[in-house]
Amino acid sequence: MRETLLASMGPIEFSDIRAHLARGAVILVDPSLDLLEVGEAVARDDKARVGTWIEKGLIGKPTLEQIEAWSKIEGPAWTSLVVQPFVLIREGVTSNEPS
């Protein structure tokens, strides 16, 4: 699973996440977390880990203020990881994160 997720991870710009934001499918991941680890937990439906991250404010839906600020950024500014039906994003660009 890790290799499949890794293959779907990469840089993304605002225009690419706009439609996902509109359907409420974007999850913002705190930079302190390993994006691939979060993706695996979401894909495995690990409610305990995901719930802990949500409670600690480490993952969640972006605020309207964040979205407004993001809309002014040009070019790739995030790293994304697709875990259907969600798109996990973290600020900052990396092409992949092998662990």
SSE topology sketch:
Elements: H1 2-7, E1 9-12, H2 14-22, E2 26-29, H3 35-43, H4 47-55, E3 59-60, H5 64-70, E4 78-83, E5 86-91
Pfam families: DUF2288
Protein name: DUF2288 domain-containing protein
Which secondary-structure class do the elements indicate? alpha+beta
Low-confidence parts, pLDDT < 50 over ≥5 residues?
none
**How many helices?**
5
Count of strand segments: 5
Number of domains: 1
Characterize this entry briefly.
Helices cover 40% and strands 22% of the residues.
Describe the structure.
The chain has 99 residues and is α+β, with helices and mostly antiparallel strands. The chain has one domain (2-91). It is built from 5 helices and 5 strands. It has helices spanning 2-7, 14-22, 35-43, 47-55, 64-70, and strands at 9-12, 26-29, 59-60, 78-83, 86-91. The protein has a 5-stranded mixed β-sheet. The longest helix has 9 residues, at 14-22. It comes from Labilithrix luteola. It holds the Pfam family DUF2288. InterPro entries: DUF2288 (IPR018741). This is DUF2288 domain-containing protein.
List keywords for this structure.
99 residues; alpha+beta; five-stranded mixed sheet; globular; DUF2288; DUF2288 domain-containing protein
